[in-house]
TrEMBL record:
Keywords: Cytoplasm, Histidine metabolism, Lyase. It catalyses: L-histidine = trans-urocanate + NH4(+). There is a cross-link at residues 141-143 (5-imidazolinone (Ala-Gly)). GO terms for cellular component: cytoplasm. The keyword Cytoplasm applies. Its main location: cytoplasm. Belongs to the PAL/histidase family. This is Histidine ammonia-lyase. InterPro entries: Aromatic_Lyase, Fumarase/histidase_N, HutH, L-Aspartase-like, Phe/His_NH3-lyase_AS. PROSITE patterns: PAL_HISTIDASE.
Amino acid sequence: MVILTGSTLTIDEIERVVYQSERVDIDDKVLKLVEENRQVVQQMIDEKKTMYGINTGFGKFSDVIIKEEDIDDLQLNLIHSHACGVGEPFSEEISRAMLLLRANALSKGYSGIRPVILQQLIDFLNEGIHPVIPQQGSLGASGDLAPLSHLALALLGEGEVFYKNKRMPAKEALDAANIAPLTLKAKEGLALINGTQAMTAVGIIANLEMEKLLIQSEKIAAMTIEGLQGIKDAFDHDLHIARGHEEQIQVASRIRDYLEDSNLVTSQGELRVQDAYSIRCIPQVLGACWQTLYYAKEKLEIEINAATDNPLIFSHGNKIVSGGNFHGEPIAFAMDFLKLGISETANISERRIERLVNPQLNDLPPFLSPNPGLESGAMIMQYSAASLVSENKTLAHPASVDSIPSSANQEDHVSMGTIAARHALQMLQNTRRVVAIELICAMQAVEFRGIEKMASQTRELYEQARAIVPTIVKDRIFSKDIERLTEWLRTSEMTHVELFET
């Protein structure tokens, strides 16, 4: 059970809730604070005080005063008008993460909502009701307005949800789960959609997937080193200590560990003096990729416990402040930085693929073909990898350098953080396919060298992957092999902790 306090949620807990359907509850102190702050909102309404989003319009309409009898309609109109998301929906995992993150942000008690709003989010999580949320349409400032509006629609029994492996009208799922649709009161619509929960949810999923893929990439690179009879001296501990980057040191240590009992690696001067950079510089490059991951993780860990709506209510109602905590710039920068690490993981992997298939660069069968000339072998797999790497380079362009004014220039600078996060996730999918292609090629190469000479750890990976993709004995439709191995890497239990302990 994960208990929300508004300030203690961790990425590990998010992973358990999203992927293992761990149940969620709210700390009793949170409910008390939420109720107290709700009374402040009601008092402002009773005293006819003017406050943004409670009895005023939104954005450029912030100077328009709303009649008391229209205050509840204002919130419903906000959700309806802002539900302008387009494109394919986010995955159920991302939708689920958004529910959890929004509930945690509202648990801070600064938003002026009724406890029933918070409880509805928790009920959706525990019942497995996941709003259908289109991916496109957020500028990443004023919060993720369009995506979060689609989330809010479902709480009201409108829009669509995923429920029990089916996409259906939200009202149908609510009836099946015996949950009553919400009716919004003052401030509550705004509290639900002012925030960075779409970009943060996508960012967390990307962070988790990137961590797993980096570990997989290292172990697959170790197998490639064996297939190319690489020089082990490049991973010497003293060499990497001399530079001092901790992530580089750790990558080198893991590569040494993977290859400890290999009879396929060589020493400098035995076959050649130095390997190409895509082999020799694995710790330097992948170590730097880990650095992008750690930076993004640090910012995400702050954001998951942040109050990101507007206005916020402090000191039991003695201070109400309108500000801009919904601006996604910190996450936009973090996601754009993470994209560099994702891009380079694929980039160096593709260069190792080239060294495995190019007969001018090795003594292996040309293109790892079982019958060179008559059969092309892995020739076009390298083409596919190169295409994916090139696409990643386009997607790696920083989304955060762009801004288009909105709401008649009231909201004149935005982060595009959700675009950055979406592109990071898209790049990860591309990179996983590149790494899968490297694994296919590395397995062919070590078979040529003699799998009995492999290190025990890379041999274990070889046997697991060979159960998914058989040896290439003749040309076949390799697209199917790539996709099967990619899915295996995505769902594999090859985790960070497991590999660190091996």
